[in-house]
Amino acid sequence: MNLILLGPPGAGKGTQSQMLKERLGVPQISTGDILRQARKNRTPLGVEAESFMTAGKLVPDEVVIGIIEERLHGADCKNGCILDGFPRTVAQAEALKGLLTRSKKRIDAVVNFSVDDGELVNRLTGRRVCPKCGAAYHTALAKPEKSGVCDRCGSDLIQRDDDKEETIRKRLSVYKKETQPLIDYYRREGTLKEIEGLGEPGEIFKRLSKALGLNAS
Predict the structure, then answer these.
(1) 171 catalytic, yes or no?
(2) What is the pLDDT of residue 168?
(3) Which one is catalytic: 97, 105, 169, 171?
(4) Is 116 helix (H, G, I), strand (E, B) or coil?
(5) Which domains does the chain have, with CATH numbers?
(6) pTM of the model
């Protein structure tokens, strides 16, 4: 099964993709991860991507798509994959459709996790991290034993700049503007599944599994 996961920052997409990965036994493919791996392996496309990244420029679609195609030919993708972070545009979606068609494959479903902005802001503004050891907490969902102090190393916890409300609302606005055409595209393709992203991870996974025709147990 080949899946694409869409969802705004804080929607819980990462958690659900990990649960799907275990359930289906297929790899989760993140654009960022495979770009880094291609650079590390010094593949021709990886070297080309590195030249753009080093210069602080966006990696062109044709390079990203080429790296995605290389990754999809991996033996672990034989039974499918979960794409996270790709495609980001309709042009990328069309290119992905073309390369899958050449391999006699297709996207089985595109899952969009829907969560209202207020809930997303609450989730993200509550995140706290330890600057020393990297441990992560949440003011409501995963509190440290002592408020504001890391359980592991005793350092004071911080709120990252990108977890502040003004920044989050800007990120959500950009996400909607960039992603809505993609959602509309897959709705026309007939592959879009809308999943309510509120609730406990297990509850959300049951909804997701039902939408995909899977047994959630």
Answers:
(1) yes
(2) 92
(3) 171
(4) coil
(5) 2-26+79-116+171-212 (3.40.50.300)
(6) 0.81
